[in-house]
Amino acid sequence: MKKIFIWATTLTVFLASFLGVFAYFNISHISGRNVYLSGFKNQGHVNNNDYHAFFADEADNMALYKPTELSKDINNAKFYGNFDSYKYAYKPDINLNAWKNDNVNTQIVFTNKVDIDNEGVEIKIQNEEELSNKKVYIKYGFNDFVYASKNYNNKLRILNPSGVHETLLVPEKMTEKKVLNNVVANKVNVAYFRILTTPQTEAQSVKIKVNIEKNGTVLTTNTIYLNISEYCLPTEDFETSVFAFSNFSRAANYWQQGQIPKEIKDPTNPLEFINHTWRYLEEEYKYMAQVQKHTSFISNIVPVIDPSNLDKYYWTSESINMSLMEWRRSADGKIYATERSWEALKFYLEKMYEIGMRKFYMQGFQSSWALNSDSFYVYDEVLKKHIKIPFGSGIEGNQNMKMILDQITEKRQSKFIDTPDMEYIIYTDEKSTVVNADIIAWLDEYDKTRSNYKFAMSAWERDIDYSNITKLYNADMIWIYFLDVYNENNANFSAFVKERKKLGKQTGQYFLDADNSFNLTRAEPGINSYLLLALSKENAGHYMKYSLNAWNPKFATWSSDYEERDEYGGPKEIQYLSGDTLLAYPAYSPENAPKQGNIEFIPSVRLEALIQGSNLVKKLNFLRSNNYMSEKEYYKIYENIDIRNKNSKIMSNQKFNLNYRDTSLLNEINKNFKLNSSILKMFSPKAKNDETTAYKVIRNYVDTFNKKG
User: Is 66 helix (H, G, I), strand (E, B) or coil?
Assistant: First the structure.
């Protein structure tokens, strides 16, 4: 009895401890991280004008609102912070450093004490033509606010302990030169500036003169002093692989509001479907290919949903597993695609090729997101109906895959599909090591030199067997999903990366809409930049993030950051664009979209932050590889990347330090580009830094190497 009592007591204590830990991590007990918008202290500058504007760092949130309703309108929202303190902010000018082939960002915070006519408030660049002649280009606009709701990471409704647990309105979308929302009294708006240089831009110093005007009357004048280095940013060396799912069905559903367009003659014709839908997608892909400089896109090559009702399937489907290809099986067992399918694929790939897309990830090979992850649908000409057949692994599945790839190869070699340097990549999404190893082994036999097809896979780390991963070394690209981005102390992962690097294979990590380290949309933009630095430190900088052009008209699917839940746990209807996975935004809503012409896409602040992080890694690698930066300096600066950064409850501890980017003094000291120990110490890790502060430290340090022409 005594033993039973002891065991019972032990079990009770254990259960109590478990429940206590669970309760601690439950929604009601997790405080999460704060968003720091306390404002400014009086440092001798007071602006009591009705209108006030000042420069701020691109890495910071400078205006947040707490919504009082399910809306992105700031009129009725409560400003997050002390509005009156903004009058103490004084920074009419800013110094920025850029390389050739670079882009740098900044923002102007605009406050007003009185109501202003919405139609009259806009940004004017006084010398835009002069800048263009110098091959310096600038894109600018007032940011629109996006609704970012409190999120839950799973059905247990446990909040992310490192996340921001508040519903906020966040300035995210660069829109027109005019303020889009009403300019009401005692509100803060943000103007965002993206400055681009080219490889042909000369090393020089230029002024960018900025006015904010009301019906032609200048309200504020601000100046950007841009110092352009003679260094040229490398185009390769580090890739942020932001994939675009080619979800024509969802995109069409968004723009068409679930209706088949009246001008469509044959709703079952994939060529007519893609031709009509292209006007909605071309500008988005152009933006991602040219502005972001990424060239990867995904599309299924096999239908994984029964395509019997193609009219509804194309135009109203919510599936992310869309395929334009219609496959048939003849009486002799041969699998072939219809001619109109080939025409649709030809149109699609050649259009993508024209706008710079070069990596075609062919999905459908055992995709875990498919409803039928081990098979696809063909129309059996003997049975006169659609049936499922194996695909992607196993003897029969590999035979079917061979028939399909043989035909794609034939179309490419015959120049029917004329995309000469496009890579065709077999892609599996979150499948087991066994399945991936089987496909790799088959591909090694089918295409020994990998001259026609490469293999890429993504998988959760929990599915990786590090004790038996030899076969995975021959995957050309691998992305692993971790619950945390900090894996430099993960010996198994580090060894895996090291072995694959010897073989010239790419290894990296990926994150979905709201990874378990951050809630990226509510977090500071600089955290997105920091992510790329953290991955680079692990020698696994091949970073992937899904970018969905797949909006649901009622709520943002695949977007836990933006999914507002009702009392029963179901999604409420949100009738506007939102989503952490959306890295570029259409300039129009469906009801306001022009009837003719393409739909322009506009930048996202947090996509720009990802680009900044990628470019910063390129700069660090360039400086080190050319011996402009010593090994000591290189590794010292990477000490700022630390797992403890995300434990800072208040983000951006350097927030509102408006001189944080001014490196003119350091440039003077560092004329020979070799910093002495006292200056290097300034860029050492600081206690209680957060990710954005760490990013700024590294960025500003690199700016000290901004060699002038």
Answer: strand
